[in-house]
Design brief:
By secondary structure, the chain is of the alpha+beta class. It has 8 helices and 14 strands.
Length: 393
Amino acid sequence: MVHGRLGFRVFAQSFIALSLAGAAAFASAEQQAQTTLVVPAAPLLPAKFGPWQAQDAAPPCTDCFHPEGQTAAVFKEDGLTRTSQQSYHLANGPQTMQVEAYQFIDATGAYSAFTYLRGSGAKNYSAARKSGSETIATGTGEFLVLSGTTVVDAHVKQPRPTTSDELRQLAVTLPKIGGIKGLAPQLPTYLPQKGLQDDSVRYALGPVGYQAMGGALPPEILGFDKAAEVITAKYSGKGLLTLLMLPTPQIAGDRGRAIAASLTQQGASAGTVKLRREGPLLLLTTGSWSPSEAEAMVNSIHLRNEVTWNKALPPEFHVEVQKTVSLLSGILIFCGLGALAAIVLGLFFGGGRAAIRVLQGKPAASEPEFLRIDLSGRAEPIHSDPPAAGSQG
């Protein structure tokens, strides 16, 4: 029926328009209601660790002190972000501890600062280079702790044999940073361990740090402006090994030629020089190596293919299946409700109009009210409704 179909179409269009308007209004209100929550950074130093307690109830001093002189320049190059300071006392003893903490942008900068602060003759208590954690004693009563992106310098009066174990407990409390920023640098893992003097390892990310840590080469030729990283180490009874990592093999080749020219100018004072490039990695020996030892050293180090993933992992397969099932179920329910609504509305409008015609004494439906397309070309007579009973004329 024409009027029934037109009424249902108008109703459906109105329903869709109202639904879209409601959805748009809800989305706009939800967008306006969004707020930004700023979570303050966790404190660098705890109020208590092991048997050590803070001297007073006040929170640790944050950014109230800064390194000075050459240390400030090196730490700036390494990406220092904030500092903290706290005094501790032993719960059952007279000992006190002054602790300074430095947090860096990433674990690479923290490791560079750690090797800068570590002096020669440092005693290693524990080391876990792959996880970026290390605790050492640099002198009488002075300890360094490396944990993730944080370096702690502790000075203890009247140190005890258990101090290093207690500082490892401090390392557990330091803030942890995940993702790519929390990854320990890869270059130190290329150093051969046989004959390595641990206290001689120095890792630099810029010319200031490299020069401050006694680098053997002019820092301006190493490519620090192109994101180079350098590690140097001494070996017992031998000379100095330098590893230089650059972004691309092309840059490494260019820097390798510049280094070779500089060492040629130094002459015999550079010692036994062996230079080899493998991809973006440069390997160099200087100092008192024998030719065979230097050759064996640079030939024993090879690049490893290590893949790191810094994107969010995709959800598991069953999670995707659940999402698909939920989406299809929603679509089926919506279609079913739409079909039910169409049937109800059709019965309401069509049945109502048919009932009105019957009450008026007319048939429920008549031919003129149905439209059809006749392609035969013949004129069809139009049959009008018979006059109602009792009507005149």
